[in-house]
């Protein structure tokens, strides 16, 4: 089983493991990440093996600052403006990969672009100590519910990795927002911890929705089925069917809510930030109820609600068996 260390005691052990090409689960402000040296092919392969992740799905390269980012990617003026506005923080930029970048091709899934983010807290300090970018997708089995606590990581991946760094529950609770600047326009690839409206205010323009590469996966989190519990998920539920668990939101309940096998409320007051922080932990708890289906009440699609609904739609999508 994985060793679990609090952040204040974990730095030396984490650096040693990463230097040796191992993977380490670390806290970030968004979710827990499964980190490995992004320049080491064996380390990146261990990430895929631990997660059971499709290798066509690219990873985010996490950096400690603009100097490290500029060493692996080319930042146009608008991308640099967004980085200055939101780093460190929950925004990932998809950027042209430098030809001389040391990032291993497994990180980019063979694309000529690389997804880059600067995290807050322990992750940023760890990258600075290592001196190299970290590939760090969410610390959970591929396609399953994202971990927002060290306990959730241990329950899922504890037998497959050597160390979990415990930084307590994550504050944002959703993965980063991913955008790509193309022809001077900001395109949203994945909604996340920074609302699109906030990005629009910083960029001074409307964010374009919709992938520009057809069916091509350009960034993490774009697969149709993702973030899924073992139970099936039914979104926009106006009533609870027999045997279902209920993921509620706000003060108004779905019909027959009192008959739910189990019920948790993302935010009784209807606060979308609170709902985002609770989303994955509440889904995990309802999944443990044994209900075959989790019914989800409607959630507004504004602000962080766009990212919450994105995760719920992918959790409810048909899955490969």
TrEMBL record:
<keyword id="KW-0067">ATP-binding</keyword>
<dbReference type="GO" id="GO:0061710">
    <property type="term" value="F:L-threonylcarbamoyladenylate synthase"/>
</dbReference>
<dbReference type="InterPro" id="IPR017945">
    <property type="entry name" value="DHBP_synth_RibB-like_a/b_dom"/>
</dbReference>
<comment type="function">
    <text>Required for the formation of a threonylcarbamoyl group on adenosine at position 37 (t(6)A37) in tRNAs that read codons beginning with adenine.</text>
</comment>
<dbReference type="Pfam" id="PF03481">
    <property type="entry name" value="Sua5_C"/>
</dbReference>
<feature type="domain" description="YrdC-like">
    <location>
        <begin position="8"/>
        <end position="194"/>
    </location>
</feature>
<dbReference type="InterPro" id="IPR006070">
    <property type="entry name" value="Sua5-like_dom"/>
</dbReference>
<comment type="similarity">
    <text>Belongs to the SUA5 family.</text>
</comment>
<dbReference type="Pfam" id="PF01300">
    <property type="entry name" value="Sua5_yciO_yrdC"/>
</dbReference>
<dbReference type="InterPro" id="IPR005145">
    <property type="entry name" value="Sua5_C"/>
</dbReference>
<keyword id="KW-0808">Transferase</keyword>
<keyword id="KW-0819">tRNA processing</keyword>
<protein>
    <recommendedName>
        <fullName>Threonylcarbamoyl-AMP synthase</fullName>
        <ecNumber>2.7.7.87</ecNumber>
    </recommendedName>
</protein>
<dbReference type="InterPro" id="IPR038385">
    <property type="entry name" value="Sua5/YwlC_C"/>
</dbReference>
<keyword id="KW-0963">Cytoplasm</keyword>
<keyword id="KW-0547">Nucleotide-binding</keyword>
<dbReference type="InterPro" id="IPR050156">
    <property type="entry name" value="TC-AMP_synthase_SUA5"/>
</dbReference>
<keyword id="KW-0548">Nucleotidyltransferase</keyword>
<dbReference type="InterPro" id="IPR010923">
    <property type="entry name" value="T(6)A37_SUA5"/>
</dbReference>
